[in-house]
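>> Question from a student workshop board

For tomorrow's exercise we were told to take the sequence and the ligand below, predict the bound structure, and bring the output to class. My setup keeps failing. Could a helper post the expected result so I can at least see what it should look like? The ligand is nicotinamide-adenine-dinucleotide.
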Amino acid sequence: MKATILTLPGDGIGPEVMAQAQAVLEKIASRYGHEFVLHEGLIGGIAIDTAGDSFPEETRKLGEQADAILLAAVGGYKWDNPQAKDRPERGLLAMRKHFGLFANLRPVKTYPSLAQHVPLRPELLQGVDILFVRELTGGLYFGPRQEMGEGDEAYDTMLYTRGEVERVAHVAFRAAQGRRKKVSSVDKANVLASMRLWRSTVVKVAEDYPDVALDHVLVDACAMHLLTRPASFDVILAENMFGDILSDEASVFAGSLGMLPSASLGAGRFGLYEPVHGSAPDIAGQGKANPVGMLLSVAMMLRYSLELEAEAVALEAAVDAALAAGARTGDIARAGEAVISTAEFAQAVLANL
Ligand code: NAD
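>> Workshop helper replied:
Here is what the output should look like for this input. Compare the format with yours to find the bug.
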């Protein structure tokens, strides 16, 4: 197949991990007979410095012509000025909004060889493989709000329409069909009216997926169950802020922030794929970055936007094999274990592809 991909290396360790993503895409293209046309664009701090805008028009246009966007990371000390009128993260938010990306997918799984990096008993971690589907453009982060201003009052509002819940619920159920066929819908229906709408809508959507089991978990109970029985979850569907908090809680199961991929999807096949980590300015430019989050984001792009499931599975297996064979960047190495560079880790993955 032929696909056009916009790559946005961004700031800090971004260009270092993006270079490995490109190497992997080249290998997959030649191995499976695809043509991936890569266009590179600006986003974040480097875009502010070069184009005067964290999400330049040129990047927007390139994205509109692409089948998918791969983003590495944005931000850094240089742009950490709260008074500045543009900030690197603004570019990211503007891009998600521009492309109508309402569903954020964050898979989290455990790697037996990295169990010592996880502050949970190893027996609890066996078989943990969770996909968070977080609503990304509604709920408490986007409802009507009032800043405090000069007064003593401020508020945020959790507002959902049935349509907003329906479309993200469909994403969760479809994803579950390709997995262990279970959706746990997180809400706070015992207290919040918006969450009663959430629950009744999810129940209705579930009727279209008789092969998928649905249960409802209150958000506070979910926070606890994630630590007491993480392996029992398959797909977790959650409101914007609930999903933000719970997926961060669960991120520790993977052993390092550098291990985690994500996808942001809209109504069609187009998507934005990025590792969960930031630009890690403390290790930037030193070849120390763990490329796994970036490479697994490439696998998600192959699966969801390009519908190349076999290639996605092959890449995930190649990452697993490299880890199982002992490939370790500094963030996932045990004392005494040999540490390899970002590029060497990617080479180990390529060798298994
Ligand atoms: P961070 O994720 O950049 O780093 C947190 C810690 O994890 C650091 O010690 C870092 O060295 C380590 N780390 C992160 N990714 C790693 C990797 N791939 N391999 C090895 N170690 C890794 O978060 P932060 O320090 O809070 O933020 C740094 C900058 O990144 C800030 O400007 C922040 O706004 C931005 N940020 C961007 C994104 C994004 O682009 N989506 C997300 C979070 C933070």
